[in-house]
Amino acid sequence: MGFTEKEIHELSDRDLTFWLSELHEEKKTRRYRATQDNKFILAPGMKVKVNHKKALGKMYTVDRVKLKKAFLFDESGLRWNVALSLIEQV
Known about the structure:
The chain is of the alpha+beta class. It is built from 2 helices and 5 strands.
């Protein structure tokens, strides 16, 4: 649902607070679902990518999966502790 600029200016502080809180809850829910999906899909030995600027174009192998994070290592043997929400299955 989109608003025009005029409609946004006409919203009260109470309306803006409501919409911002709704957007925040939707963002949290989306992040939670992505984390839960990854937790059940990821397994040790899988190849994954990490959605982060320091990890562009690199492939990682899953070592362990915890409740909110996974331990990954790259081709050079460096280990990374990464949040599940940043991991993308290849």
